[in-house]
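Supplementary notes (optional reading)

For those who missed the lab, this is the record we used. Protein: Phosphatidic acid phosphatase type 2/haloperoxidase domain-containing protein. Length: 218 residues.
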Amino acid sequence: MTTADDIALYGSFEGCPAQPILRRPYGRGVRVRGLEFGVLNWIQENCRTELLDGLMPLISALCNHGEIWIALAAILLFTRRYRRTGAVLALALLLDVLCCNGILKPLIARVRPCDVNPAVTLLISRPQDWSFPSGHAAASFAAVGALLPEKRGRLLGPVLLLAALIAFSRLYLYVHWPSDVLAGAALGLALGLAAGHLPRWADKKTGRLRPAGGEGKT
């Protein structure tokens, strides 16, 4: 496995210009990037199995374009009891696309670990966009954040488990740095929570919010 000492100072891939990877040969950047490589390489050396090699690409593919969460939002929107939850989830996913793909990825323009260390054989096609933050993790945890204010306990558990699996799959597949996934999860969770609280804020502003303890009373 490639160590921090073997990392090239510059990495690039088709369609994206070369970017500095380690700006100071013996500074903080080497230690941080070396730690991230350590996590990725530990996963490669200790977690790889034939079963997971077949399973992780499938789990990752569930969210290549947010498909699983878009489908969930659509189902909820067409279910009268959960229509508001579906609208909140759809809003969270929209905010995620705008912030993650529209702003942060092109602004930060970070290359992926598989481009810095091409010695690793990828199990999926190499992603062609920038690395930071992880769009898969952001969309998945936006779904988690959207469900929290809605108090959908039966949905929250499975959604949280799937979100964690999707986030881990990006590390297993060697297409994201750990900090990409952590930042994506944090961003998605924040956007989901914001989307979940917007309806309550709007209700409060328009005077339609029920008083505490009044739910269910006639």
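If you only remember one thing from this example: The chain has one domain: 19-205.
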